[in-house]
Amino acid sequence: MAEYRLDELSRLSGVSARNIRAYRERGLLDPPRREGRSAYYEDIHLAQLETIDQLLRKGFNSAHIAEFFASMREGTDLADALGLRRSTFSAPRPRNGTGPAPEATGAGRPTAVPGLDPEADEVRRLRARGVVRVVDGMVVLVDPVIGRIVARAPDKASLLRAIGRIHDTTDGAVDQIAAEFVAGLRGSIAARTGRATAPGSRDEPEVSQIVRDYGELADAMLADRLRATVRGRIADAAAGYLATATAEG
């Protein structure tokens, strides 16, 4: 089992040592293994940092995340409601008694991509965003799907630059959309429970269902619509390019 000191965990996760300490003090991270005055972290802490980053990007604050994690550690259904990986906090369990849980297969792990310069500008920009990591001199794409696409691309650096531009130009719109969904979520919870913040434990089943509904709503309203629009634009651009190439040929 891999173990990391604080500076190593910071390097791998892209999270500053100061923030890691703060997360640990607030109960967001599981306690590290201690040996004397030294603290040793494991892959589970790396996974927790990734989950924290995902939730922060979705508009949740550290107090909310601490509550979510506490509920998950107690074995409630809130983890499923939020779409978080239960393997981040406990051992993978079979579903319906057959086969390993999806995360146990290793199919969703970050992808190392040979042939990329860790010091290149495009790598540094994406590293600052948490899209890539640099591990032992190797550029690692955090998202396995993006990693596979970049790995097979003939011009990997050009594709990374495009990914960086897309992030830069869509940040504001994505943040605004996420904020609208979070505002709607909070309004729905308050309307149902009569409390604007910190609903009681008796409200947890209804709150979990509301959160689940908003997650599905986001998928239905955003994912399919964005996919269809972007693919349509790509198809139009490709058709225009091919028509021009045919005419010139």
Low-confidence stretches: 90-107
The major beta sheet can be summarized as: 3 strands, antiparallel
Question: Mean of residue pLDDT?
Answer: 77
SSE sequence, one letter per element: HHEEHHHEHEEHHH
Number of helices: 9
Number of domains in the coordinates?
Answer: 2
Beta-strand residue fraction: 5-15%
The Rg value, from CA coordinates, equals 21 Å
Proportion in helices: 55-70%
Measure the end-to-end span. 58 Å
Record field, number of beta strands: 5
Shape: flat
Give the class from helix and strand content and strand pairing. mainly alpha
Strand order of the largest sheet: 3-5-4
Description:
The chain is mainly α and 249 residues long. It folds into 2 domains: 6-90, Multidrug-efflux Transporter Regulator, Chain: A, Domain 2 (Orthogonal Bundle), CATH 1.10.1660; 111-248, no CATH class. 60% of the residues lie in helices and 7% in strands. The chain is built from 9 helices and 5 strands. The protein has helices at 6-13, 17-25, 43-57, 62-73, 78-82, 121-129, 144-152, 156-193, 204-248; strands at residues 33-35, 38-40, 111-113, 132-135, 138-141. The strands form 2 sheets. It has a 3-stranded antiparallel beta sheet. The protein has a two-stranded antiparallel ribbon with strand order 1-2. Helix 6 (121-129) packs parallel to helix 8 (156-193). The longest helix is centred in the last third of the chain and has 45 residues, at 204-248. Residues 90-107 have low confidence and may be disordered.
